[in-house]
Amino acid sequence: MPELVPTADQNAGTERLLDPDFMRRLEQLEIVSRKIHASRQKGERRSKRKGESAEFADYRNYVVGDDIRHIDWNVYARLEKLFLKLFLEEEELHVSVLIDVSASMENGTPSKALYAKRVAAAMAYIGLCNHDRVNLYAYSDRTTGRMTGLRGRRMTAQAMKFLDEIPVEGGSRFSSAARQFALRHSQKGVVLVVSDFLDKGGFDEGLRYLLGRHMDIYVLQVLSPEEMSPVMTGDLKLVDCEDEEIAEVTISRALIDKYKANVQGHCDSLRAYCHQRGISYLFATTDQPFEALVLTYLRQRGLVR
Amino acid sequence: MKFLSWQTAALAGAIAIPLLLLLYFLKLRRIERTISSTLLWKKAIQDLQVNSPFQRLRKNLLLFLQLLVLGAVLFALASPVANFDRVIGRNIVMLIDHSGSMNAIEADAKPRLDHAKRAAVEFVRDMPKDARAMVISFSDRANVVCSFTDDTRRLRELINAIPPTDGVSRIGEALQLAAAQGAGTEARRHEDEGDQGGSTNEASAGIPSADAAAIDIELFSDGRIVVEGTEASRHEDEGDQGGSTNKGDNAPSPPSYVPQSLRASVPSSQVRYYRVGETADNVGIVGLDVRRDFEKPGFLSIFVQVENFGSSPVTSDVTLSLDGKLLAGGGAVQEVALGAGENVETSKNRKVETGGSPRPAPSTKGEGGAAASLQNVLFELEHNEGGVVTVRWEWPDALEMDNSVSAPIEPPKPMRVLIVTDRPLVEFFIHRPMADFGVQQAEAVSTKIYESMADAKLSAEGRCAYDVVFIDNHDTDRLPPGNYVFLGGLPKIEGVSRGEEIVGKPLVYGREGHPLLRAVSYESLFVGKWRRLKLPAYAMPLIEGEDSAVVAMLSDPGHRYVLLSFDLLESDFPYRPSFPMFLQNVIGYLAGGGVAEAGRMALPGDTVKLTVPSGAEKVTVKRPDGGEEVVELGDRASSGSMAYSLTRDVGIYQATFDDAKKSTQSFAVNSLSAAESRIAPNKELALGSQRVESMEAAKKVNESLWPYAAAGALVLVLLEWWVYNRRVMI
Which residue of A lies nearest to B730 if distances are taken between CA atoms? Predict the structure, then answer.
């Protein structure tokens, strides 16, 4: 299989998302899966299944039909019973990143979408460096882009290009995207969902689809500082950038306080939902340094090590 | 409160309120802002509304405030006025009373006139912008202080310059002036309209209709205004000295102060009366009479009436001074105890006496025999020289001018009687008892000699040189001011004439209480025939037949006549003992000495007649306030008399002529007016056919409230701004 050589364009996309120094530091990290998943492909991760690696795992009784090559004859000699010698199997890890590219992700400086893309790029790069199978999904109600089955560092440029070029538009339909992902992606592994979760359809349905696949789910909620504490005065007509819904408000201290409480409540409800279902909840605002987020925060939360 | 232009406000409100509501419904134009999601905002709005118990009200608070602002503006637009009396017209006549009672000192030590001026100035300040006003001050006569003008500054200056006087309040002339000005204004208005129309308008003839005189009369007074009664009522009162009731007290309604002829032209609805003053306590000398005893001419009787108009009894001294010096002796100072004054409400507007004759004693006595409010004080003095007597009430009270009265007295003169007759028998009957009556000089002349007698002999100092003139069977118009007894003849004066002859009728009535008929028995008197007399209304019959007067008395200023309508010799009167009694009454009553002194006394504002000595070309009048006035006599020097009318201040006036003898004449001006001394403000006036209720001058009438409404609107706008900012402030 010929090796893919990154083009200049692809390199530009990489540089926009991750700078080389940071990439070098990422190479030392690996994605941690709290579960041991079964995979079809051999890889560098320990599998649930017993296989053919050099590492001994266990014995079990022989049953008819077992490969007699795996019978431990030394044990038979001592005990006159047939036992099968089992070895650990090593398989590859599926790392999937779902990025929300709805119009609401354009908000913030830098935009939440760029922040999300950089996180996805970092995770993809870590995965590719560790020979994990990396799947990238971008979703909104208009765009559904995906790049699946990426493996090996050589695929970095492609992954970066995909992330860089994906348009940010349309409304967010997380439940629909999660359903599609669950249907398409039968392999178990690590799933990272990066979104602002400002989805009028709610987040629980989508997360339920992912939970149904018994995946190791990480949720990264990205909000901009403007969303956390808005700076606005006067009589305003607030237009939703996704569905153009209008909310007429006269900004007052009480309203702002109420809004802040609502934001906090929204985040808290998402966090509580995740904790109850074994989902790792991560939170970031776009004013947080991205490098610190990946190297420190994600490490602390156990997504990478 | 009344709205002067509520229609404007209603119209503006009908437009503005729906407009505001419409604007509110349309709402303000909001700034559009794109955000990532309205999800949390909508939730916040909903939460906010749910959490606020008065969220609907809160939502509409700004609308509510805006409605309040609009309401305040509309309120201001409706020209609200407090203490509304009536709409002030464009032509205003301000009548300011500056009579004697307005000199009363109020609680703040300022005279009442100052309060009236201040109220008038306030009125001018609040006058509508398009209004014009004229100012008339009045006391005994009216004076146009300022003709119609809209220059409020000039009006205020001229009002403040109105001088005080001691005169009585007579409003009739002032109202007449006001009505005339109103009529003139209306006529001019019609002329203007006619000119503008360019057509011959009937109204442009300038004849004002009764209700066309669109003037507003603003009266600033204490309401103590003298009734402008008829001559008849005055004379009737004078004759009714023996009567016990005071007609003014029993009058059920206040008498109108406006002459009948003027009533139609003064619609009372146009008159607004601002009551000035509060003080009511005052004691005044309301009557003075100085007489020489005609039997003992050196003996002076000074009779004064002191009346308490206050609500509490007062005791103080009444003193008698001669030429400014308090007389020695016990009789010169008399303590007088006066009871509380009559109820002001029931006794207001008592008719006032015009001359020096004493008023009847009041019928009102205090409860349980307490002292009456009106007391008579008699001083007796033996004084054979001239001079000025002054009687003074020593208790200081609110009104100073009525606390002292003065009278110049002449040296005693021998009493002189003139008998004008062509019949020796009549002369005999009259002349014979004269010596017994103390008459020093009784002359008898024929009618021809009387008619041709030199003026210098017949009159002296403007009066008849004789104290009493008996004229027998002769009609004459040669009647210098004096006392006349016509025996069968008649004075040729207006209203007196002779009718048909009445023969053999009995005499049916005699006014027994009258001083002239004292001890005269008329029942047994026989009069063979007499002539029916046609007399003016003010004549007082003394003895009457069935339908006509037989003996009557007439008085007019300067003259007193006793008329016998029969020939003495055609009755048994001269033969009866009653006749000398009658003669004595006549001499005592008519020439009792009082008349001569009364001639030297006047009321404020009266015209005083002075005799000009021959050779005088100018006269210097020294006024009570110390000022001197030089009057060139001119033509009056030859006429022998002059009139002096600048007598508004009470006190002694001294006229010095520049003749060879530098002769001087004094006269006294005394208030002697119960109406002016009764200083308690009058609560209502009868002007025209209706009563005019008073209002306190200090109380602001038609006080505009729109500035308050405008200020309120401003405050509400600020409040609205604050509320808005508080809501949007982060």
Answer: A253
